[in-house]
Amino acid sequence: MTESSMLLRGATLIDHTGERQGDVLVADGRVTQVSANIDAAGAEVIDVVGCIIAPGFVDLHTHLREPGMTEAETIETGSRAAALGGYTAVVAMPNTDPTQDSVEVIEFVRRRGIEVGLCDVRPSGSITIGRAGEQLTPFAELAAAGVHVFTDDGSGVQDAGLMRRAMEYGRELDIVLAQHCEVSALTKGAVMHEGECCSHLGLPGWPALAEELMVHRDIELCRLTGARVHLLHLSTARSVELVRRAKADGLPITAEATPHHISLTDERLSTFDTRFKVNPPLRTMADIEAVRAGLVDGTIDAIATDHAPHAGHAKDRPLDEAPPGMIGLETAIAVCRAHLDMSWQHLLGAMSWRPAKIAGLDDRHGRPIAAGEPANLVVLDPDAEWIVDPHKLSSKSSNTPFVNMSLRSRVRHTIFEGTLVVRDGVAQR
Predict the structure, then answer these.
(1) In terms of CB atoms within 10 Å, which end of the chain has fewer, N or C?
(2) pLDDT, tens only, 265-289
(3) How far apart are CA 350 and CA 405, in angstroms?
(4) C-alpha–C-alpha distance, residues 70 and 396, integer Å
(5) Max CA separation in the chain (angstroms)
(6) How far apart are CA 147 and CA 324, in angstroms?
């Protein structure tokens, strides 16, 4: 055995091939043996009886804020939060300053991820220069630099002609166009979901139609071009149904939903607490139930956090002025377990191997737990109970909507490229 070898003993192993009991031996960055009662003299033995070992989680939608907004988060602090949440890979959103629209910025993010990251940090590229919605980024150049996912997240591409051109390029380059579905003309000044609660509070509303129109538009553009399209953070019942029909038609559409859109309703904003302000906004219970159903039946492929940290002074502004966004990397698995009626295998698939495939990371992440595979793993304690204390979370920001909530299930260990980056719930650097 090498000095870096470790033996995870006595867990339930769950991956896309199924569920079984066993031990996992890790050495030199790879899984070297999987079987019952492994005898590995010289390896560090870690007792994980009662735990689940799964392929590490992959987040398609993480805001790391660096470069430019490091008061709220950095690649180091965000990747640490990710590792504590069981993630071995994250796709870093491009709404940084400067925008991730050039090889230089992409390489900066990638390099910082290698230097200080506790997980695999993969930069996405923006669809348009500066995310301004006017001119396409150099897709071929960025794709050659390793970018697989392109998005203007935070802003939807409003110009249908421009989006069609983006999809035509995307089809030829075999990249993924990830859309923030929002028709901005319908959401100017909006604070929360347009509905009963909004009317009662006298606040400007964000109609479900603003999301659904763009979902419909991009499904039809996908039908026209054949491009791979990923729909970000779906939040309405009609959006889910549109995607369900598109998949039935065989279109190359994938979609994600967030933990907060399956757990929190718009009524949370009746307290004017800015922690519950997010884009797209929290919706009604009927929408929540539809999004949950979409995850259960596979219409929605992946769970993504949309981890969006903000400095305290920004979230302390009045509700109509505070920026939208919530942090969510460390609470994701526990929130999802509490609110989704899914088997462990189906839930873990939505957080690991399915997003890994969408992101083009399935050569190293979301892999089966088998000899010879990269050792990117998470060890979960499914029965651990804990209270969310924002001051004990690793993110540089504390804008969690789950503050003081009691949750069950927590990450015990995270193994990234064979290294124990989280041990007993504590980041190792």
Answers:
(1) C
(2) 999 999 999 999 999 999 999 999 9
(3) 23
(4) 9
(5) 68
(6) 27
Q: Under 8 Å CB-to-CB from 177, ≥6 apart: which residues?
A: 127, 150, 151, 163, 166, 167, 170, 227, 228, 229, 230
Mean pLDDT across the chain: 97
Per-domain boundaries in the chain: 6-53+370-427, 56-358
- Whether pTM exceeds 0.90: yes
Q: Active-site residues: which are they?
A: 306
Write the class of the CATH domain 56-358.
alpha beta
Integer Rg of the chain from CA: 21
For residue 284, what are its two tokens? Answer: 């009604």
Q: What separation in angstroms does the CA of 310 have from each of 74, 135, 258, 327?
A: 11, 28, 18, 8
E strands present in 16-100: 18-27, 30-35, 44-47, 52-55, 57-62, 87-92
CATH architecture of 6-53+370-427: Roll (2.30)
pLDDT of residue 26: 97
Helix (H) or strand (E) holding 14: strand 6-15
State the sign of the Cα–Cα–Cα–Cα dihedral 11, 13, 14, 20: negative
pLDDT tens by residue, 174-214: 999 999 999 999 999 999 999 998 888 888 999 999 999 99
